[in-house]
Design brief:
Layout: E1 3-6, E2 12-17, E3 23-30, H1 44-51, H2 62-70, E4 75-80, E5 85-92, H3 96-109, H4 114-132, H5 135-148, H6 161-166, H7 169-179, E6 185-191, H8 197-204, E7 228-233, E8 238-246, H9 255-266, H10 272-280, E9 284-293, E10 298-307, H11 311-328, H12 332-349, H13 353-366, H14 373-382, H15 385-395, E11 402-407, H16 413-419
């Protein structure tokens, strides 16, 4: 299904040939994100990401970059998270030479034009404003701030506006030069390609040396010992809720039971929380759960948009459902359905070249071994009912609960009392 390679300069490459598609995706991941930042440059990873699209020595303006990509009907974008920054282009397989030339040019020869930097400050501030005006979009940031507090994992990826207004071109260049090194980057290509694509990648991404440099980030805070509650007051018709717990990192042996528990509790429209909180009690329009692993920790989170007049009832009902799975566990029918759901989603996702590239690249970046779909399914098949109950008891703990709320609320005190019942 895939092959892995290491170029002379230390850059890793993963190639996934897909014979039944005319599309190809080129993805580059850089192992850096907001958790690598200091407080005075919080948001700089995201700022650098924006600047990769603002001109290179070969294509000196943003318009030249976007005009070429739009001219071939390409899909392209970039993203910054807490622990990784990514850039991708998806297009017809015939356009792969352009994709290689474009991404390598952007990531190795961006010019950091001072005028573009000044312009982009305003763009990023408006992006921050967009999130702050949308409680659904900002909930993940607020929830992780509740969990991690004043730790880089609890900081906003885009940073505070005050930093964006002040960060200098030299700071941006220094940060780029520190982390955008071949040994800290990974290229993934997925589509109807041959093994000769590795030579093409090598020619385009030849810059830099194989000298490795160690990168560090702050360790996670000590194990949580009491509930955390955060209320962000906002005049809304609905209250956004994030409720959850610290969980497991990439590669942890219990991630597979947790993924199955996630499906059972809130992964689809027949999950326990969806049926109980929405269908039976009518307390919300949407409710879901998610698992988000990092390199040394992780998150298991319930997210919902709730009726503001019945918020106490909703929080209590969610806690009851979480407690039920700890005490009584799950049924064999639930386990079978959850397995089949994950298997079905995996098969559908891996029909697309961009999903294949992302799925493989993230494994290569954060795990010791890149698994095939068959190996992942084999792991899922080995999970037992007892495993899921054990993991539920390990993760869902009152002393490690975190509750974040966005809406017309004045105080966190009443919710603190609710969590201690």
């Amino acid at each position: 299904m895939f092959t892995t390679h290491t170029l002379k300069n230390g850059m890793r490459v993963i190639v996934a040939p897909l014979r039944d598609t005319k599309a190809v995706t080129l993805l580059v991941l850089v192992k850096v994100g907001s958790r690598f930042e200091a407080r005075n440059i919080n948001g700089i990873s995201h700022f650098v990401e924006h600047l990769m699209f603002k001109g290179t020595t070969k294509r000196p303006t943003a318009l030249k970059i976007t005009r070429e990509l739009d001219g071939i009907g390409a899909e392209y974008n970039a993203f910054t998270s807490k622990d990784v920054t990514g850039y991708y282009i998806k297009a017809h397989i015939d356009k792969l030479p352009l994709l290689l030339d474009m991404l390598s040019d952007m990531l190795q020869h961006s010019i950091f034009d001072p005028k573009e930097i000044e312009r982009e400050r305003g763009v990023i501030i408006e992006e921050i404003n967009m999130y702050e005006d949308n409680p659904l979009m900002m909930m993940e940031d607020v929830f992780e701030q509740t969990v991690w507090g004043d730790h880089p994992l609890g900081w906003n990826i885009a940073g505070p506006k005050s930093v964006i207004q002040k960060v200098t071109r030299q700071q941006l260049l220094d940060y780029y030069n520190t982390y955008y090194r071949p040994t800290n980057m990974l290229v993934a290509v997925s589509g109807n390609v041959s093994e000769t694509v590795v030579d093409d990648i090598s020619r385009h991404f030849a810059r830099g040396t194989s000298q490795k440099k160690s990168y560090s980030f702050r360790a996670v805070p000590p194990v949580q010992r009491e509930p955390h509650v955060m209320v962000k007051k906002k005049d809304t018709e609905q209250i956004q809720l994030g409720l959850g717990f610290p969980a497991y990192p990439h590669g942890h042996k219990d991630l597979y039971p947790l993924y199955l528990l996630n499906v059972i509790m809130g992964g689809n429209m027949s999950s326990r929380l969806f049926m109980s909180i929405r269908e039976k009690k009518g307390l919300c329009y949407f409710i879901r759960t998610s698992v988000n692993p990092y390199e040394d920790t992780g998150i298991f989170m319930v997210q919902a948009g709730l009726d503001k007049s019945r918020i106490d009832e909703a929080v209590t009902a969610i806690l009851e459902e979480l407690n039920k799975v700890k005490v009584a566990g799950i049924t064999s029918a639930e386990l079978k359905k959850a397995r089949e759901f994950i298997k079905g989603k995996l098969i559908l996702d891996l029909e697309a070249s961009d999903e294949v590239a992302s799925w493989l690249a993230r494994q290569m970046l954060f795990e010791k071994k890149v698994k095939t779909p068959a190996e992942m399914i084999e792991r899922l098949e080995k999970v037992t009912i007892a495993d899921i109950k054990r993991v539920a008891r390990d993760v869902i703990r009152r002393d490690r609960i975190n509750l974040a709320l966005i809406g017309p609320l004045d105080s966190a005190e009443r919710f603190s009392r609710l969590l201690k019942v």
